[in-house]
């Protein structure tokens, strides 16, 4: 469904109810999708039901498209099916019309590498297409056949096909999610705490992941977890991370798995968020969530993003949330303090870091250790046998060992997650029973 556009020329269009239209983000999104932005048309007015823009502005848009030789118009708005159709009919022949969410789906489609990511993109595309298929059916009944540059050719069986495909994809995603739930439990039983990175795209989550996992040998991690993606790239571009990327890190005495997830983006419609709920499973089921924000943005922007992030996370999230104010290397200390105060109601006691330069990462590690579930202490007295040596080795791999005394018996003292304590007691019980 999704194509890659490396050379197509695009004109940006945006309407706002009041104020001045800012096209910075939509230009970035267009470039991320591979378009060459060659012009823009903006308007401040209430939405026109038929054309979104006023009719005069649509004529102006058509003229700019013709003058610049553009192949596509990208709206930084959500267009209804009939608006898309009407605008397309006013533009030069063979010029496509896409809105903000169609553009985001194109980017997602280009970045989707795993089967799960590809399924989620396909699900979102089908949900996007369904109302347009319904609109084409309605227009066809009135003998109005939408052309290719509007909504596409009409196929009377398309609606039912879309609904069947959506059902099939949901079933396959549920199967993948079940496998992932099983993996999460295995990792907890192996002694790992699960930490998830969340936040808006381009906040620096991938860079922070690399910084937290700096001591990690990647090949070693791949052997342990062959299902995991390679470390996310750290680039100044939107949607670098589409799937989830997990790496192991040492935080104090703990072995932690840190997962980077798809970035949030403003003004996403419900159907698009819903399509990517599967990706957010690693956030919802973590032991701790690090909500990463770009401290160089304005207080208003950060506040708006925190509110949206909390709305998304609190729906199903069970873990504590720590806000990380990233990119402190781009602002001075006074600005960081001012923003901490201004955002205290939404982000109490945040941690300010520069993932790029490694500033304050130790403080963040201490905070992670503090916020994760408390370790329990245990002392086991075991018979001196070969099987005991195997258990001692297992405890070293899965817990933080304080002392081991070897004599007539083996006495080991350690700290670990409650699940590891339970497993060690069960294994010890079997050893003692076997030696009795």
From TrEMBL:
InterPro entries: G_HFLX_dom, GTP-bd, GTP-bd_M, GTPase_HflX, GTPase_HflX_N, GTPase_HflX_N_sf, P-loop_NTPase, Small_GTP-bd
Protein residues bound to Mg(2+): 206, 241
Domain Hflx-type G, residue spans: 193-376
Keyword Magnesium: yes
Residue runs in coiled coils: 109-189
Pfam families for the chain: GTP-bdg_M, GTP-bdg_N, MMR_HSR1
One CC-aspect GO term: cytoplasm
CDD domains xref list: HflX
Binding site for GTP: 199-206, 260-263, 326-329, 354-356
NCBIfam families: GTP_HflX, small_GTP
Family: Belongs to the TRAFAC class OBG-HflX-like GTPase superfamily. HflX GTPase family.
HAMAP family linked: GTPase_HflX (MF_00900)
Job description of the protein: GTPase that associates with the 50S ribosomal subunit and may have a role during protein synthesis or ribosome biogenesis.
Subunit note: Monomer. Associates with the 50S ribosomal subunit.
Protein name: GTPase HflX
